[in-house]
């Protein structure tokens, strides 16, 4: 995304060592590695980021029941439900559908925001009114007018199933609320900062229209920034180990600002700070609804008057506690659920781990083989969970047979599954030693497992297995030249490539010519490549 410039010219970043007044220090005034640590420490190396930019990685989600319980535990949603029930059988409201003045303090007491006795603070009433507004937005209450002209509110149809914990109703209500907060957060970020003066302009004038256009443009930019941040957070923490999903806000900002393949420069530190400052209140709003666990930026870091902002620690990196003052963010399970739903609405392929592991072995291997956006080992692990090893191995081996386009990859995936099953699969593997399609791979698997009495394969089976294995990697690599070149150089070509390829082109396999073409294109030995191309021509002529 485009670099962002500082919005506070009175608080410039440092231009060199010792040139920054203590009261004006911002995150941009520190070395990036001191503030946030290396990207690799948070599971986001360059290669991972490149992959994430192309495909949204699969994620795990708790059950609907667990997500529902988390949603009902969100205070603001609980307040909305409680106020909605409070309207039964009906409750008077003003002409705007808001609680009447007489009901506002009782509403704050009902929600536990204020004590049962004594004065109710203004902020407690404001909080209760926010909950009422959410209840109205979610249609948990319905506003109408009686025959006598009184404005009243009554409980909406979703209230009862939501109170009973119906997963579909609760999650739909929570997701709608999250969408509302997401929009309002971006809108608030686009408004002039407190204390900024606005020139008065006559309504409908060119100046007024220009100002409205500027606000709308700012709102769109804020919404785009927030959406990008949520998606990057979703992608970069998809594979994080449990307990390591928290990302420093500076790392998140750097991932949004620093161009791919480049190291963060001193010039970009100001842009990173601007993004951090812009995201800080928006992420705080989303955290209130349980979408994020968020530790905001310590406001003292930006306190220009007190001069209490910590100075850089020389060449020493900031400790964990000091670094945390610049903000920490983590998607909750509800947050992962919400971002995935929004990605799906935007047309992204955003899979769940285990989605492909619901059918039999044939459905598993076929679905994984044909899907570009998948974690094969995880899908296989999900499928194997709870199954008896020996019957599972037999089912997998049967599903691996075939001569269709994806058959070689199914056999490769079958071997991954056998690796996960381990020694209990050995009897099933021995049953296919003489199978023309599975025998070579079966012998290789047994040998790798250290099994005894593994018969040596005959030459035709060896050659067929070479072609089949290479064909599987052709499918699995997506045409990546580097990966394929490593495979090509590992082929057991003898000192006489003409003799080796003279055998290989005769192999009765649907992918023989394609494999030889790849060898001819990628092998670094010119003589080997030439012989492979000649063999590919013969293989095609044979057919």
UniProtKB/TrEMBL annotation:
Chain residue ranges for the region called Disordered: 1-26, 188-216
Entry superkingdom: Bacteria
Bias type Acidic residues, positions: 194-209
Protein name: Uncharacterized protein
Organism the protein comes from: Kitasatospora indigofera
